[in-house]
């Protein structure tokens, strides 16, 4: 089969954006995985959010395969599924482990109470009933020795005069640079050689219709997935346990993923069949912005409460 090494401007742009998006998604898990590991808890994450996200990624991968989307879009869809499984596995592990420890503490407390040793029990009750207080305590205890690397990776900082948003912005800029450089390297080694006349299913074929249905299913899942997380943050008035950089990389990945799909071909027929993927990637940016707003207002609220507790003590 004859191969062509010449790419159109649209294909080059699509490849660069797709490479940046792939870099963002490859790094996406690290901030949240490290945050969960340091806290030995995944209480900050909504399991419904993760489950719906995984279902959306499975539909996304299936639709991309049968529709013939851009190669980077298909590769990303496969990686999404793998990364979801890793994060869900870690979260289930910590949730199960902590639930078992909580039951053991409850039985131990009841045993001590029956032996006439309840003198210090009231002090324990002062913070355990507050939403998110358990993971705030565990994260403070386990992260107290972390330095600048932790601040950049997780987006959190205990130093009053620091600016985690600046640190994370620099990290995102690095993602753009590495992603773009990665595409140029792959192009030079011939990774983007392609058949001269690729075959794509027509929009009227059953395969194309199935792909479109799967694409819209994934878009709906993506748009709905963050709602449980937003509600959880609102109810607990806290974003503790969440890595800010996790959502910044998600925003970067979604934005460049959408641009990768959009710039692959200017043909109206292709744009129409790519609409669900554009909705799924670009539509979630609005919800990510809501979570960023929650990070801002709830971090200020946590600082105020902490200062009040310190003064009272």
By DSSP (H or I, 4+ residues per run), the number of helices equals: 10
Number of strands: 2
How would you classify the quaternary structure? single chain
As laid out across the biggest beta sheet, the strand order is 1-2
- Compute the separation of the termini in Å: 77 Å
Poorly predicted regions are 123-131, 138-161
| Count of domain modules | 1
Evaluate the radius of gyration.
23 Å
Strand content: under 5%
Q: H/E element string? A: EHHHHHHHEHHH
Mean pLDDT comes to 76
Shape: elongated
Q: What structural category do the secondary elements indicate?
A: mainly alpha
* Main sheet specs: 2 strands, antiparallel
* Helical proportion, percent range: over 70%
Region (Disordered): 104-153
Membrane topology: Multi-pass membrane protein
Transmembrane segments: 12-35, 47-70, 76-97, 165-185, 205-225, 241-262, 274-295
InterPro entries: LAAT-1, PQ-loop_rpt
Task: Describe the protein's architecture and organization.
- By secondary structure, this protein is mainly α.
- The protein has one domain.
- Helix content is about 80%, strand content about 0%.
- It is built from ten helices and two strands.
- It has a two-stranded antiparallel ribbon with strand order 1-2.
- This is Vacuolar membrane PQ loop repeat protein.
- It is a multi-pass membrane protein.
- It is found in: Membrane.
């Amino acid at each position: 089969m004859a191969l062509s090494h010449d790419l159109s401007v649209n294909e080059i742009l699509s490849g660069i954006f797709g490479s940046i998006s792939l870099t963002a998604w490859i790094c996406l898990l690290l901030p949240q995985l490290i945050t969960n590991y340091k806290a030995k808890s995944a209480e900050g994450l909504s399991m419904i959010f993760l489950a719906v996200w995984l279902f959306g990624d499975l539909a996304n991968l299936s639709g991309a395969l049968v529709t013939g989307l851009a190669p980077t879009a298909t590769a990303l869809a496969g990686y999404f599924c793998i990364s979801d499984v890793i994060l869900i596995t870690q979260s289930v592990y910590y949730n199960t482990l902590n639930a078992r420890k909580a039951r053991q503490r409850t039985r131990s407390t009841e045993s001590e109470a029956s032996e006439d040793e309840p003198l210090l029990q009231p002090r324990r009750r002062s913070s355990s009933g507050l939403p998110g207080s358990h993971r705030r305590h565990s994260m403070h205890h386990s992260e107290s020795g972390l330095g600048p690397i932790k601040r950049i990776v997780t987006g959190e900082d205990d130093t009053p005069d620091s600016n985690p948003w600046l640190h994370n912005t620099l990290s995102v800029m690095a993602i753009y640079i590495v992603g773009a450089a990665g595409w140029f390297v792959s192009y030079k080694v011939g990774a983007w050689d392609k058949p001269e006349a690729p075959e794509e299913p027509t929009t009227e074929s059953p395969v194309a219709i199935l792909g479109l249905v799967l694409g819209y299913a994934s878009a709906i899942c993506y748009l709905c997935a963050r709602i449980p997380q937003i509600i959880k943050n609102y109810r607990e008035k806290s974003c503790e346990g969440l890595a800010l950089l996790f959502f910044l990389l998600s925003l970067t990945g979604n934005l460049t993923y959408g641009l990768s799909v959009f710039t692959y071909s200017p043909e109206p027929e292709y744009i129409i069949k790519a609409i669900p993927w554009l909705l799924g990637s670009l539509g979630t940016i609005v919800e990510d912005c809501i979570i960023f707003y929650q990070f801002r207002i709830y971090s200020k609220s946590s600082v105020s409460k902490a200062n009040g507790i310190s003064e009272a003590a």
